[in-house]
Amino acid sequence: MKKYKVGYTAGVFDLFHVGHLNLLERCKAMCDTLIVGVCDDDYVHNIKHKEPVFKEDERVRILNALKCVDRAELVDFKVTDDKMLALDRFHFDVLFSGDDWKGTERYRKTEEDFAKVGVAIEYFPYTQGISTTDIKTKI
Question: Residue 6's closest CA among 119, 99, 98, 110?
Fold first, then answer.
């Protein structure tokens, strides 16, 4: 039996690579159902100030094809930014996030909000030596 019933993580997942796969496999190993929020193109343009290589619908399709992902859906800035909105939409009992967010003001507040409703946060380290930005630079 896994530690959690429903897990949630979110990201852009452009130029899907082994770092993305490592994250999703770690998430799935801890929950029965893994839901992935895929940040929409507006988020990538306006918040990350980048141009995605793959359009939002293609990124969702790629993630939905993975056996470690039970469901991938497009999410906008509001759902990406406000994890309580994500919780209302997806009804998860754990949020998976990169450990670079741990201890930040944004996530301290999220941890407090989640503690009130019995939702956990699990932080994972990023895979060293690979990133979408590095891949774009090499190409």
Answer: 119
